[in-house]
Design brief:
It is a single chain. This protein has about 270 residues and is mainly α. The protein has one domain. The chain contains twelve helices and no strands. Keywords: Antibiotic resistance, Cell membrane, Membrane, Transmembrane, Transmembrane helix, Transport. Belongs to the ABC-2 integral membrane protein family. Its main location: membrane.
Length: about 270
């Protein structure tokens, strides 16, 4: 009886801490989502780019699909566009955070008792939902062009892209809060995004048969390439294949590292 009495306060404190985290995360999320809904231009522009790729570049892949090892060109192309959406739909969200820092919002949050992880997760949750909705719209449009893919493969592909968005959004917030300057953030994000994008094979697969050895080696070192390959396997229906599982596992790791990086940066601001 004594032991049970001694441990009950600890359990109560843990439950209270968990409740506080959830409440503060939802508070930050609702505020961030309201901002996005009041100004949806960013979300619309983020979706416009992959849709333009789909409509203007996709038809060029149709005659090349058999040579690339795909029965349907859009099974090959749409997964790459989802990854592009996850990257560019989240990589530049840090610009909004710099504006919040300049307006004193970050300072007000810093002196609040809210867990620093909640300040990051709440914002990232907004970005994940926006990318997931954009992914649904993108896939729906792709069906009009002739996409053929299993339902659960599509669902897992969109979830994977959303988790990738969580990784890039967290990193973007962390870097933005460190630099506190749009002039410094823009070239840095572009400098990181362009090599990752070109070496990921989102437009055309990069393999030993289709690329020079040095380019294929560099591409294999790029984690985004394996995410793209994983989503392509999911769209092919190979959900349980090693390629699909490796791509999903790597995406989860990237998301976890990104959230850790973002949380540590917010905590460092307290100092």
């Amino acid at each position: 009886m004594t032991a049970a009495t001694a441990t009950s306060p600890a359990v109560t404190d843990e439950q209270r801490s968990r409740s506080t985290f959830v409440r503060d995360t939802l508070t930050v999320f609702r505020r961030a989502m309201r901002i996005s809904l009041r100004n949806p231009v960013w979300a619309v522009m983020g979706l416009l780019q992959p849709v333009l790729y789909l409509s203007l570049f996709g038809p060029l892949l149709e005659p090349l699909a058999p040579a690339l090892g795909a029965s349907n060109a859009y099974q090959l192309f749409v997964p790459g566009l989802l990854v592009q959406l996850g990257m560019f739909g989240a990589l530049f969200v840090g610009f909004g955070l710099i504006g919040e820092w300049r307006d004193g919002v970050i300072e007000a949050e810093r002196v609040s008792p809210a867990p620093r992880s909640a300040l990051v997760v709440g914002r990232v949750l907004r970005d994940v939902i926006v990318v997931a909705v954009q992914g649904v719209v993108l896939v729906s449009v792709a069906f009009l062009f002739g996409l053929e893919a299993p339902f659960w493969g599509i669902v897992l592909g969109i979830v994977t892209a959303a988790l990738l968005a969580a990784a890039f959004a967290s990193a973007s917030y962390a870097v933005a809060l460190t630099l506190k300057s749009e002039d410094a953030l823009a070239p840095l994000m572009n400098g990181v995004a362009l090599p990752l994008l070109l070496l990921s094979g989102i437009l055309l697969p990069i393999t030993a048969a289709s690329a020079p050895a040095w380019l294929n080696t560099l591409s294999n070192l790029n984690p985004i390439k394996h995410v793209v390959s994983g989503i392509r396997a999911q769209f092919d229906g190979d959900i349980g294949s090693s390629v699909a599982l490796w791509g999903s596992a790597l995406t989860i790791v990237l998301a976890a590292v990104g959230l850790w990086f973002g949380t540590c940066t917010f905590k460092r601001e307290d100092g």
